[in-house]
Design goal:
alpha+beta; Cathepsin B, Chain A; 2 domains; nine-stranded mixed sheet; 8 helices; 23 strands; about 25% strand
Length: about 550
């Protein structure tokens, strides 16, 4: 750790801790255990696109990426490691982190997923987002898990568990150790794309909507085959959030994979969300699920539903669901392969098929919270070198009262952050009524401070700042303390740690902010223009002044 000399240009800009005013909204819970992502977030994401070269390739009739070495496998073997979430509501983290993120980051790094060091645990995100609950009340959303991976990163099985086997019932512990968080930050999610299979309000079989659905399904299949970028040896996997499921049926000959299980249509009368992982597709899956129908009373929506019944014919061009429209929702051939999160004893060895007809989604009238299928492709960073991190040692007795974030100012002499504050997902009243480290899987409280690192540069990448702020907020009555706070800059091939200039620990406020002056004198190239320093400056390395330039200190 290198500590460079700090040069003060003036006596202004001393470090302060002070109160600021912020507001936040209370979220609405979902009784399904699955909380849909916000419509605003979902619609802000770009829709999956594929290259013209990929589109020109002829797709094979079937793809299965669970056979690739990047999908989680047992230690030192090629046996699939199908995760079991047990009685928890951890499906979002299992599908997103354990399955999709593990696969995609290891594909980019060309390493197998059969070691603790190369599998990424769902507990790290789930434990930060489950509100201290184990069952459905530990709801979260795919949106929050994705944001957590972008901001904080993924922690490996080896670092979360040590030599022990991962157990999802270890669901309240926050690991402690600066190195653990630094290493997790190096495993970042880069960007997310969505696959749009939505049906607009008032849809009545418009040709452009039908064409969009079929085109986006084709894009999905290309992504599963070659990532949409001509990587035919290594297709991708997809995180799939579904708000309505229905009973499984057994596939029968002449369908491919006869004897395996398939979901043929969605029962909108029984909402119950879940997150799964799409690993492939098969165009030769077929099931006669519609053509006839019967009416069934739906207590949920207080109306009769049209329930499809088989008619003895496999048909893609029949009105199998009796909605008066012939589209993908009527198809009786083709399905995606999805892995569940209840071990190999669930579904069919841990997976099932879902007909292409289940992918389009129209929200039923009366649904009070935003609901719809969510299909996401995740692209991690193959490598990531942290820039500026905040190194914090925190002691607190009730972490669900706490929220942590960061802010900045353009000059070092400001006493409060400028502009909006940025709060870290998973550290925003999410952790349950436990001490800051939580509880172990046996229910024992883990007392004492936690050592954690926050990625400041995630919110302020390549931003010229004068003062860096750590924001902490406490909405409860329990008093906590920040035992240590420092800015750590990993740029320019050295580690530069600048502690908060405070001799005594300070209480977690409601809210408070601690500022560290970090207005750097330019040093990467010679200073050739006149500069005026209006506040304290930090000098690192050996800044050079050329061209008879003048530095003025006010």
């Amino acid at each position: 750790m290198k500590n460079s000399t700090i040069l003060k240009a003036s006596l202004a800009g001393l470090l302060f801790m002070f109160s600021i005013s912020v507001s936040y909204a209370q979220e609405v819970t979902s009784t399904s255990g699955y909380y849909p992502s916000s419509a605003e977030y979902y619609e802000s994401l770009p829709v999956l696109t594929i290259t013209p070269q990929s589109r020109s390739l002829t797709l094979p009739p079937a793809v299965d990426n669970s056979t690739k070495p990047y999908f989680p496998q047992k230690d030192n073997s090629n046996v699939l490691y199908v995760y079991h979430q047990k009685t928890t509501a951890a499906c979002q983290s299992v599908a997103t982190v354990w399955n999709t993120f593990t696969y995609e980051i290891n594909r980019l790094r060309n390493v197998t997923s059969n070691l603790q060091e190369t599998r990424y645990v769902p507990n790290f995100s789930f434990n930060h987002l489950n509100h201290g609950f184990a069952d459905w009340q530990g709801y979260t959303s795919l949106e929050k898990v994705q944001k957590f991976l972008k901001e904080t990163g993924g922690m490996s099985d080896a670092e979360f568990d040590g030599p022990g086997e991962n157990d999802i019932l270890d669901l309240w512990r926050w690991p402690t150790g600066y190195d653990l968080y630094y290493n997790a930050i190096k495993n970042k999610l880069h960007h997310v794309e969505r696959i749009d299979m939505s049906l607009p309000s008032g849809y009545n079989g418009e040709p452009d909507v039908i064409a969009r659905l079929e085109s986006n399904l084709d894009n999905m299949k290309h992504y599963l085959y070659d990532h949409g970028i001509e990587d035919a040896d290594n297709g991708g996997v997809i995180t799939f959030g579904v708000n309505f499921e229905t009973a499984l049926k057994s596939l029968v000959y002449p369908s491919a994979h006869a004897g395996e299980l398939v979901m043929t249509n969605l029962n909108y009368c029984h909402p119950g969300g879940h997150a799964l992982t799409i690993v492939g597709y098969n165009d030769s899956i077929m099931y006669d699920w519609g053509g006839n129908y019967h009416l069934e009373w739906c207590e949920k929506w207080q109306k009769y539903d049209t329930i499809p019944d088989p008619d003895g014919i496999i048909c893609n061009t029949c009105d199998n669901n009796h909605d008066g429209i012939i589209d993908m929702q009527d198809w009786e051939t083709g399905a995606v392969k999805v892995y569940n999160s209840y071990g190999t004893g669930h579904d069919y060895n841990g997976y099932k098929w879902m007909m292409y007809s289940t992918l389009p989604f129209r929200r039923p009238a009366g649904l009070q919270w935003w609901g719809g299928h969510e299909l996401y492709t995740l692209t991690p960073k193959a490598s990531f070198n942290p820039a500026i991190l905040l190194k914090v040692k925190i002691e607190a007795n009730k972490r669900d009262d706490l929220r942590f974030g960061c802010g900045s100012t353009p000059l070092a002499n400001y006493t409060a952050p400028v502009g909006s504050l940025n709060y870290y997902t998973g550290y925003s009243f999410d952790g349950g009524p436990f001490p800051i480290q939580g509880k172990d899987k046996n229910g024992n409280y883990l007392n004492g401070p936690i050592e954690v690192m926050f990625d400041y540069s995630y919110f302020y990448w390549n931003t010229d700042v004068g003062k860096v702020f750590f924001i902490n907020e406490n909405t409860g009555t329990e008093v906590g303390q920040i035992k240590y706070l420092a800015l750590v800059d990993y740029r320019w091939n050295e580690v530069f740690e600048l502690p908060y200039d405070q001799s005594m620990p300070f209480n977690i406020g409601n809210p408070t902010a601690a500022g560290i002056e970090y207005d750097l004198i330019p040093h990467e190239t010679p200073i050739v223009d006149n500069l005026t320093f209006e506040a304290n400056m930090v000098s690192r390395f050996s800044p050079k002044v050329d061209n008879s330039s003048t530095l003025t200190i006010i």
